[in-house]
Amino acid sequence: MEGIENARGDDGLELEGTLALNSPLFGEGYWLNYGTPKDSELRQQFPEPDLYSDWMKMGEYFYRLSGALIAREEYDYPNCRQDISPSEAVKIIESFGDNN
């Protein structure tokens, strides 16, 4: 999970897959995005699959689940090589705030 004070919105890439998120902590209306870009030109530019949720607001801050590609490229974790499955990512996000 990432956390920031100001979110810039989505990354501008429409990926192959999306799954709706409904977290007790963040509420509804957020999406998990996964796969490669739908646009073939962008897919040539960015061929590696990605996985990330929308930035989700809680209080003054925004949070998102991000996958291996973002961990390597934005946070310099070179050994992070494999994403969890999209269904597992949804389970994790939807478990936040669940007291069961």
List the helices and strands and how they pair.
Elements: E1 2-4, E2 15-23, E3 27-37, H1 40-45, E4 50-53, E5 56-58, E6 61-64, H2 68-75, H3 86-95
Antiparallel strand pairs: 1-6, 2-3, 3-4, 5-6
Number of helices: 3
What is the count of structural domains?
1
Order of helices and strands: EEEHEEEHH
With strands numbered from the N-terminus, the spatial order across the biggest sheet is 1-6-5
Distance between the terminal alpha carbons, to the nearest Å?
21 Å
Low-confidence stretches: none
Total E-strand runs: 6
Portion in helices: 10-25%
Report the C-alpha radius of gyration, rounded: 14 Å
Describe the structure in your own words:
By secondary structure, the protein is of the alpha+beta class. The protein has one domain. It has 3 helices and 6 strands; from the N terminus they run βββαβββαα. The strands form 2 sheets. A 3-stranded antiparallel beta sheet has the order 1-6-5, with no helix packed on it. A 3-stranded antiparallel beta sheet has the order 2-3-4. Strand 5 and strand 6 form a beta hairpin. It is globular. The protein starts with a strand and ends in a 5-residue tail after the last helix.
Please sum up the structure shown.
With 100 residues, this protein is of the alpha+beta class. It has helices at residues 40-45, 68-75, 86-95, and strands at residues 2-4, 15-23, 27-37, 50-53, 56-58, 61-64.
What tags apply to this protein structure?
100 residues; 3 helices
